[in-house]
Amino acid sequence: MRRFYLKNYVLLLAMMLVSGLAFAQTGSISGTVLDTKRESLPGVSVTVDGTTTGTATDVNGAFKINNISAGTHTVTAKYIGYTVMSKTVNVTAGQATTVEFLLAAESQSLNEVVVVGYGTQNRKDVTGSIATVSSKDFQKAVVSSPVDLIAGKVAGVSITSNGGQPGAGSQIRIRGGASLSATNNPLIVVDGVPLSDNSISGAPSPLSLINPDDIESFSVLKDASAAAIYGSRASNGVLLITTKKGQSGKPQISLNSQLSASQISKKVDVFSPSEFRDFVNTNGTDAQKALLGSANTDWQDEIYQTAIAHNTNLSVSGAYKSLPYRVSVGYLDQDGVLKTDNLQRTSGAINLSPKLFDNHLKINLNLKGTISKSRFANQGAIGAAVSMDPTQPIYSGNDEFGGYYETKVGNSLQTLAPRNPVGLLELRNDKSDVKRSIGNVQFDYSFHFLPELHANLNLGYDYSQGKGTIFVPDYAAQGYNSGSVGGVTYNGLNNRYQQDQKNRVGEFYLNYVKDLKSIDSRIDAVAGYSYQIFENHVFNFPTRAADNTVLVTPVFPDNLDKNVLISYYGRLNYTFKNKYTLTATVRTDGSSRFSPQNRWATFPSAALSWNMKEESFLADNNVVSNLKLRGGYGITGQQEGIGLYDYRSFYSLSSNTAQYQLGDTYYNMYRPNGFYPNRKWEQTATTNIAADFGFFNERLTGSVEYYYKKTKDLLNEIDQPAGTNFSNRIVANIGSMENHGVELTLNSQIIRKKDVSWNLGVNFTYNTNKITQLTIAPDPNYPGARYGTISGGTGNSVLIHSEGYQRGSFYVYQQVYDAAGKPVEGVFVDRNSDGVINQDDLYRYKNVDPRAFFGLSTSVNYKKWSAGMVLRGSLGNYLYNNVFSSTGTLRNVFNPIGGYLNNASTNVLETNFQGAGDAFYSSDYFVQNASFLRIDNVNIGYDFGKVFNSAASLRLYGNVQNAYVFTKYKGLDPEVNSGIDNNFYPRPRTFVLGLNLDF
Fold it and tell me: Is the per-residue pLDDT at 750 higher than 50?
């Protein structure tokens, strides 16, 4: 027994000795990674070259790599959006070696690797207009739509929220719109998968189904030379989204959690209960005064709430042996400020990026999925809360209409009166369940016999399903008389909906990159093929009353639409002496949306750049650190936003609500579809001239650009003479439009010291457009295409597209004012001096789109404290205040129908408008200046460093979103995409507390 114990003791002693000797022969490398402003960079990949050893920095930018053999090693730090840096370190056995990395942001370095279409390029070789925003510079805010992360960050890019509803999404415009009837949305590509422009049932915005926390960077392709590689879908620019990837090194766990509270910052200014009583008692008849109630109800207070949201994201990244990975999960639970509104989103993402065959084969697998559950509030409550009589109670005291007060005529519901806003919210259950998965696998093979040649295969998909139910009980006023069967009237709703979308893409391309040292040149060539198919499957369910009685049976149970896009593309990038670069791109697209005769089109581009800093006269200049001139020209196309089969004639079977009666039998009818066989691609030609510059060792960097865009063969909805087509309006290639503008971007590191840094970024955009043709032949009597229907009167519209004018002009009467400066109702300027006020006196006044917009971002860091602010501004945009025109009249308060009263906006006290006649609503008095300066975000944070016995790093922060808006606009919010302010869902002011915890 003693011999056994002695043997084990000796073995244990030997193991300890060997272990000690091994430890004595190794050391460690630790340090920090900072940017040039000396701000910490979390998540940076730090590796020891020639080994599989590495790690990632924590929230403070700190890292430590253990068990490094003694000797000299090269350590490399890599971070997306920043330059790669390597340092040589000497490791001493048994000791820790310290090293510090200062990484320059990509926008400040000519060696930046920029994501472009089908590949990457060094910034110094880029000839087109490409802006990149990395996660380090994202908006510090709670967002449900990814693009809100870069709002106000990029010149030429306008991002406007669609409202305060959770998941509402945003409108994106790059250098203004290039179309009238087709879409003006940019093409969005996520990890190499081009997304469809179609929406999905049950989701206000498809992009809201992507978790913003999974996004690493955005690249915005703004001009044709950069975007033409995407050909037919690039007229409105391209937005490339790159998600976060796995990194080599030990596993790193990151937790990001936020808690927020949101409130509306402003209400529509209507009469309070006491003001309303005074107004009615002063101006009303005895019968109207008798309609006043005894309650005191602020209806806007009753429909809005303090909305609580929490957003938590957890990710694990690292490498298992030689397999880098990243896995993340996220959960968002967000209430809307409008009661009953809620969004719950669960998301997950997986990235695997192995390298095989001595790194000749690189595989990148991306899988992202979300499950989104929403309850949608009845937004009709917003308008009802403005109009509802404030002297009436919320509850009636009886069971009728679910206990909610409603206006009645005798014993029946007054259907023309506003519905009880609280009842609209509480007695409607509108729920959706949306699932979406986006994924792809990319193979990048470098040939063994020719390593400069890479073969790339990309197989991707985007599947989504949206389904939901809408239930309104039969006792709810909003469900009154929802339909009849056999002469019996039914109430309420119990409806279903479902939509499935499939988007599949397969791409193969060859990429050849070669440095030709003998002639001091470099070439980068791409040639490829793409096939993409889109399917949209809409299911038709019976319309049912609340008791499940079928009111309408669909003719067909479902509709399945398909369209295909086939493409061939190529790009050549040639650089000579690191000074002169030529880029040529061509793409040929074929789309099933067009007839065989017009199906194919080619979209070329070419661009040049001159890196003047490489010239002898600037090489030794210590003031100018970068100066590059570039210019380009190219053609891009448009096919989105139009029908799939409208190039040919076909018939559609009518629904059961549009039947024809013969005797006692009802028949569905076949309706001919309007068509245009010669429809073809809309094309936009763009010229871009720019200069990129940097001064004082990149302390001040920026660019200035001029662009001119000419769109021809506009896909435009036009009127058809009677009898010439199956419809009185069709979409045809008629018209042209031009945009031109100037962009300025400036970034400055004002203070750059060890403990203190201050940086400032500014961007400014001026853009204007003009419609140069709208008809086949000149027609001076054609005013233009009217649109923009408003509330009030009958069929009134206040916007127009007219030849010779900017798109989206207001088409209104010129108001006449009295000596005191007050508008005189119904009196307008006789602009053609014919003695009659009619449609011929309408004129084009102001515009929906701004002439200029700008953004400002600033951040200050002092030791472990950080603070920042983002501002956005818009100049020259106008809104039609439909709330003023529809509610601010005596006619609205004392409606001619009688039997009830409506509240009014208080502008009626200034105007005393009666509100009679359609012409009243077309007054330019209601077109108001909506220029603004918005404080988008104010944030502050503190880094605690190592916590929990150095097991983790902690950062706490807080911010305020939509802090304040400076504007002369008299309505609720100056940012309304449509140009018509009519009961807009208010954007809330949001207060956020958050923490980052890295293990």
Answer: yes
Residue that finishes a domain, picked among 104, 121, 143: 104
Task: Choose the final residue of a domain: 193, 213, 243.
Answer: 243
Buried b (16+ CB within 10 A) or exposed e, 930-966: bbbbbbbbbbbbebebeeeeeebbbbebbbbbbbebe
219 and 239 share one domain:
yes
- Residue 839 has φ and ψ, to the nearest 5°, of -60, -25
Decide if pLDDT at 733 tops 70: yes
CATH code, 75: 2.60.40.1120
CA distances from 993 to 313, 338, 694 (A): 14, 22, 37
pTM of structure: 0.86
755-793 residue pLDDT tens: 899 999 999 999 999 999 988 888 888 898 899 999 987
Domain containing 236 — which CATH number? 2.170.130.10
What is the bridge-based pairing of β-strands 682-695 and 624-638? antiparallel
> In whole angstroms, what is the distance from residue 688 CA to residue 289 CA?
66
203 and 113 together in one domain: yes
Expressed as residue numbers, the domain containing 179 is 108-243
Query: Which pLDDT band, with edges at 50, 70 and 90, does 4 fall under?
Result: very low
Question: Token pair of 891, please?
Answer: 């006619």
Give the mean model confidence (pLDDT) for residues 389-405: 95
Residues 139 and 231 in one domain: yes
C-alpha–C-alpha distance, residues 737 and 785, integer Å? 14
Residues 37 and 61 in one domain: yes
Residues 59 and 184 in one domain: no
User: What are 73's two structure tokens?
Assistant: 């090693």
pLDDT digits (tens, 9 = 90+) for 523-580: 999 999 999 999 999 999 999 999 999 988 888 888 899 999 999 999 999 999 989 9
> Residue 108's pLDDT is what?
46
For residues 688 and 629, what is the distance between their CA atoms, to the nearest angstrom?
11
- Both 112 and 178 in one domain: the answer is yes
Q: Which tens digit of pLDDT belongs to each residue from 180-211? A: 877 888 999 999 999 988 888 888 777 777 88
What span, in angstroms and rounded, lies between the C-alpha atoms of 92 and 71? 7
Does the residue 176 lie in any domain? yes
Quote the mean pLDDT of the chain: 88
Q: How many beta carbons lie within 10 A of that of residue 88, not counting itself?
A: 10
Q: Does any domain span residue 786?
A: no
Name which of 234, 235, 224 is nearest 585 in CA terms: 224
- Residue 459 vs residue 171, higher pLDDT: 459
Percentage of the chain with pLDDT > 70?
Answer: 95
Judge whether 218 and 133 are in contact, CB under 8 Å: yes
Spatial CA neighbour of 152 closest among 166, 138, 165, 136: 138
In a domain, 229, yes or no: yes
Counted domains in the chain? 2
Q: Which residues pair with 759 in a beta bridge?
A: 749, 859
Does residue 417 form part of some domain?
Answer: no
Sign of the dihedral through C-alpha 153, 158, 164, 166: negative
| 921 vs 322, residue with greater confidence | 921
Half-sphere exposure of 739 (CA within 13 A, CB side): 30
Contact between 235 and 305 (Cβ < 8 Å): no
Question: Rounded mean pLDDT of 608-617?
Answer: 92
Phi-psi region of 5 (alpha: psi -120 to 50; beta: other; left: phi over 0): alpha
Q: Measured between alpha carbons, how far is 984 from 976 in angstroms, rounded to an integer?
A: 8
- CA 347, distance to chain mean position in Å, is 18
First to last CA, the chain: 47
216 and 160 share a domain?
yes
pLDDT at position 143 over 90:
no
Based on C-alpha coordinates, what's the Rg of the chain?
Answer: 32
The answer to whether 345 touches 211, Cβ cutoff 8 Å, is yes
Torsional sign, CA 406, 410, 411, 414 = negative
**Letter for the amino acid at 642?**
I
Contact 569, 530 (CB under 8 A): yes
